[in-house]
Amino acid sequence: MALLASALRRYLLLLAQEHLEFRLPEITSLLSLCGGQFSGEQEIRVNSPFWILDIPSEEMARGLMKRTVCAKSIFELWGHGRSAGELYASLKNYPTDKMLPYLQSDSTYKVHIHTFNKTLTQAQKIKKIDALEFLPFKGKVNLKNPEHIFWILEDYGMNPNDVPEEPIHLYFGRWIADGQRELIESYSVKKRHFIGNTSMDACLSFIMANHGRVKPNDVVYDPFVGTGGLLISSAHFGAYVCGTDIDYNTIHGLGKASRKNQKWRGPDENIRANLRQYGLEKYYLDALVADSSRPIWRKGMLFDAIITDPPYGIREAPRRMGSQKETVKSVERSTENHFFVSSSYHLSDIFFDLLKFAAEHLVMGGRLVYWLPIYRPEYTEEIIPRHPCLKLISNCEQMLSSHTSRRLITMEKVIEFKDQDENSYMLDGQYMPYRGHNSFREKYFSGVTKRIAKEEKDNQK
């Protein structure tokens, strides 16, 4: 254990201040994907932008940053403290032999200052840099293209209305790598060729792929594929992707467009075109018109990850194939004279079918990542659907309104699926709590109706 501790190197992670609940599961998943495990020097302050991590190697730190969209940068941590004096003492205790390779006379460097929750003047920055003159810098300063970049990072707390005069924590380190924040803009849904009413935000799509530990040559499946937004993020990381959806028009890129001021979809608006737009077409296997409640796949372990956003009835109604013998909700006609009869598909049944499918068709160690809608006043952990073959890895909340949210659920297959156990998990008394999901749409819109009524009443005063 002592040898393992000595092999670990200390790093400082600078995180983005959005999707706070998603950051720790993403970093933990990516470290395990790189062959490491999460090990923090102290209890992680979930909302803080600064985390100190113990990582075995710089190579693993770089591997982490090649994937994360939640972190901005990572640094080899040379010193830290709760005051300038503590920081300087910490730096003086840092092993000189670890510093010297980056401070040689034939090298170039610069020092950058980052402050959280406070803005410094240029004079203040220069003063803080000059205070580090005790460090054995021998190289030349190069502000445009230095070989080594060092950062002073100062934390002035989380309250913008109560900013302290002095930082509550200071860090100094050598910059290693930046994260993949630029993917959020380059893959923005606003720029995408083919979108729908429920196309997933690019940042969340990449977070889902990272929670699912998607890696090159994986096969990733989305049973509610829609316009294929979740396939794009997995394909970007080198996975082969496929999906199914009950909507014929969406799969084939037909019918009414979702963009403002566009009435009908163009001739090349489809999932394949989205992958082609980003140079990822070679990773696209196919998308099929299929009902997720009915088996179409051969038995056995087929997928390395299942990443999906099931319909929960706000913008798109949950549907499955019906028959004339069933209570028919609607008969819909798509283009090219395609008809299908749809019947109600309760949310609880969607989740049961999804977990059962994942338990059977995921490889061992494969992950299921999906969104679960929640009516917050009634939420307890007991309503999270479970399956004996799947272990709950993380459960992160994203607010939708004051009374509703959706939770990103990540599960991992840890037990091999057996046919005789197919429905056993439905018999242990846990089935009834999930039934509450069936009324999510009514509860969501009841809140909207109440808010509108309140606003109208306030406007009349």
Automatic annotation (TrEMBL):
Q: Name one Pfam family in it.
A: UPF0020
EC class, as a word, reads transferase
Major subcellular location class: cytoplasm
Q: Which residues form the Ribosomal RNA large subunit methyltransferase K/L-like methyltransferase domain?
A: 191-317
Q: Which GO terms describe its cellular component?
A: cytoplasm; tRNA methyltransferase complex
Q: What is this enzyme's EC? A: 2.1.1.214
Q: Please indicate if the UniProt record lists Secreted as a keyword.
A: no
**Compartment annotation:** Cytoplasm
Q: What GO terms describe the biological role, i.e. biological process, of this protein?
A: methylation; tRNA processing
What the protein does comes down to: Catalytic subunit of the TRMT11-TRM112 methyltransferase complex, that specifically mediates the S-adenosyl-L-methionine-dependent N(2)-methylation of guanosine nucleotide at position 10 (m2G10) in tRNAs. This is one of the major tRNA (guanine-N(2))-methyltransferases.
Instruction: Report the sequence similarity comment from the record.
Output: Belongs to the class I-like SAM-binding methyltransferase superfamily. TRM11 methyltransferase family.
Kindly provide the name given to this protein in its UniProt entry.
tRNA (guanine(10)-N(2))-methyltransferase TRMT11
